[in-house]
Specification:
This protein has 293 residues and is an alpha/beta fold. The protein has one domain: 3-Layer(aba) Sandwich (Rossmann fold), CATH 3.40.50. The protein has 11 helices and 8 strands. The chain has helices at residues 43-49, 77-92, 104-113, 133-146, 148-156, 159-163, 169-173, 179-190, 201-221, 269-272, 274-287; strands at 4-9, 15-21, 28-32, 54-58, 97-102, 122-128, 232-237, 258-263. Strands 1-2-4-3-5-6-7-8 form an 8-stranded mixed beta sheet, sandwiched between helices. α1 (43-49) packs across α11 (274-287), α2 (77-92) packs across α3 (104-113) and α4 (133-146) packs across α9. The longest helix is centred in the last third of the chain and has 21 residues, at 201-221. The two termini are 25 Å apart.
């Protein structure tokens, strides 16, 4: 089945490219992609879920076919949360929905999952390799006080975040990556061959850096106490080269209804292990009480 496509205008007049898959009468599931990807990264998972869910995906601002804001501050978490609201209102018309997100999609989705206005709107949340920046900041502060050796271990996996703060060098690096070269890196990380290519990788990589520049310093220096408004499932990728599973350890203080599962995969499990990811998302969503309207 082909996706139905549309454009959605955001509250600040950006345009997001949106796709909807499956039967509109099925429970709604929104999937949010990470960096440096676009919504196509979800397609192996979508093919396994669309028989049970009405799936909505979109290119995050600056990625895929969506428009690219000119200012770094237009990539702030608050605006990204409003983008999710704009998409779901336009496509779902206010229906409650399940939410799953990977990498930066997960980081930005935490902003909505911990926002009171989404209580009753987001039925469940599956997070994959993307902690809430506020939660991460509190963990890093605790580690700095009590476990400096572990702090260094945490930071060593996130070395690239510092590089991404460089305004000219970091975006320029992406000119050296064509789809095949980037695909080879992902294949080696996942220990699988012929994974789907991102044919927009140079633009997705270049412009998506603003996600980091707009949010990391403000959130890590002034973290907020953010509590989940729905049940949360954390999928821990045991061999993730970029996100430490230690961030999951703090979730019980922020999430009242928490489930944790582990998957033998690296960072791009949505490509290399789509069956496991799809099964985990579906099983968790289907366990939640239905509030469809």
């Amino acid at each position: 089945m082909e996706a139905r496509t549309q454009w959605v205008n955001t509250s600040d007049q950006q345009r997001l490219y949106v796709k909807a898959w499956g039967d509109e009468r099925s429970p709604a599931l929104v999937l949010v992609h990470g960096y440096p990807d676009n919504q196509e990264v979800w397609e192996p998972v979508i093919q396994l879920l669309m028989k049970d869910f009405y799936i909505v995906t979109y290119d995050v601002r600056g990625a895929g076919q969506s428009t690219i804001p000119k200012r770094v501050k237009d990539f702030r978490l608050e605006q990204l949360s409003q983008d999710l609201d704009s998409v779901t209102q336009a496509v779902l018309g206010g229906r409650p929905f399940h939410l799953a997100a990977h990498d930066w999609g997960s980081i930005q989705s935490w902003e909505s999952v911990t926002e009171p206005k989404f209580r009753g709107q987001i039925l469940s949340y599956t997070t994959i390799s993307g902690p809430c920046l506020d939660h991460a900041a509190f963990l890093l502060r605790e580690q700095f006080k009590n476990k400096k050796a572990n702090l260094l271990k945490l930071l060593s996996k996130s070395w690239y975040i510092g590089v991404f703060q460089l305004p000219f060098l970091a975006p320029a690096v992406w000119h050296f990556f064509n789809p095949e070269r980037w695909g080879k890196i992902v294949n080696e990380l996942e220990r699988k061959q012929q994974l789907p290519l991102n044919h927009n990788i140079q633009k997705d990589g270049k412009y998506g850096i603003s996600l980091y520049r707009a949010n990391f310093i403000p959130r890590l220096t002034k973290p907020r106490q953010r509590y989940a408004v729905c049940p949360v499932q954390a999928i821990v990728l045991k061999h993730d080269n970029f996100v430490s599973p230690d961030y999951i350890a703090t979730l019980p203080q922020w999430v009242e209804d928490l489930s944790i599962i582990e998957v033998e995969a690296n960072h791009w499990a949505v490509l290399s292990q789509p069956e496991k990811i799809a099964h985990s998302i579906a099983e968790f969503a289907q366990k939640q009480p239905s509030q469809e309207i």
